[in-house]
C-alpha cells in the first residue's frame, strides 16, 4: 500500500471515525497510521491527554486494484461528557472503526452500544464498520479472546481484526481493509455519493474516455 501525506491524485475522500470507550487507544491507533511504521508515537507510553470532542487527521493510500483515496480520519472522545458533540457527526460517516481494548472487558461489552448509537443517528446512509481489538501487544493482560470478538463481529455483520499501535501490528491493514470495503460498496452502488452528505466526496473525476482520433482522409495526397 503506497501512502502519501497530502491528497494528490486521490479520486475520493472517505470520512471515517474511530469510536469506542475512553482510553482504548483510538488516538494512538490513528496517529500510528498517519505517522507510519517509522513515525514515533506521541506522547509515548504514558496516558495521552483524552480527546476533547473531535480531532481530524488525514492520509492518502492506494487501494489494491483500485484508485488512490484520501481517508479523512476523525478521532472521537470516548468520554460520555463529549458524546453530544460526537453524536451529531455520525450521519456524515462512511466508515467506522469500533475499537475496544483487549485488556478491558467493559470496553468490549460496550461495543454493541456504540454500534447501535451510530445506526440510530445515521439516516439513509449506512456506514461500513470494522471491529478492532486494540493493544494486542498486551497478551498477558488480555481478557477478551479473539474467538469471542470474532463471534460478536459476525453477529453485528462486520469483520474483526486485532491491532497494536505500540508494535504497529495490523495498523495499515485495518485501514486498508475498511477503505477497500467502502470502495467496493461504492462500486456496487450500495453506497452512493449525494449532495450534502460528507461521507464520500469526489476529489478527482476519472478521466473521460478519449474520442477516437480523426484519421487523415485516405486516398492520394491533396496538396
Ligand atoms: N500497550 C499499548 N498501549 C496503548 C496502545 N494504544 C494506546 N495505548 C495506550 O493507551 C492509553 C490510551 O490511549 P489513547 O490513544 O489516548 O486512547 P483513546 O481511546 O483515544 O482515549 P480518549 O481520547 O479518552 O477516548 C495511552 O496510555 C496509550 O499510550 C497499544 O497498542 N498498546
From TrEMBL:
Q: Which domain of life is it from?
A: Eukaryota
User: Could you tell me what this protein does?
Assistant: The small GTPases Rab are key regulators of intracellular membrane trafficking, from the formation of transport vesicles to their fusion with membranes. Rabs cycle between an inactive GDP-bound form and an active GTP-bound form that is able to recruit to membranes different sets of downstream effectors directly responsible for vesicle formation, movement, tethering and fusion. The physiological function of RAB42 remains undefined.
Catalysed reactions listed for this entry: GTP + H2O = GDP + phosphate + H(+)
Alphabetically sorted, this entry's keywords are: GTP-binding, Hydrolase, Lipoprotein, Magnesium, Membrane, Metal-binding, Nucleotide-binding, Prenylation
Identify the SMART domains for this entry: RAB, RAS, RHO
Q: Which cofactor does it need?
A: Mg(2+)
Regarding protein family, the annotation reads: Belongs to the small GTPase superfamily. Rab family.
Cellular-component GO terms for this entry? membrane
> Which ranges are annotated Pro residues under compositional bias?
214-223
Q: Report whether Transferase shows up as a keyword of the record.
A: no
Name of this protein: Ras-related protein Rab-42
Q: Which InterPro entries match?
A: P-loop_NTPase, Rab_GTPases_membrane_traffic, Small_GTP-bd, Small_GTPase
Coiled coil, from the record: none
**Stretches the record annotates as Disordered:** 204-223
Enzyme Commission code(s) on record: 3.6.5.2
- GO MF term (any one): G protein activity
Compartments in which it is found: Membrane
Classification via NCBIfam families: small_GTP (TIGR00231)
**Membrane-protein topology:** Lipid-anchor
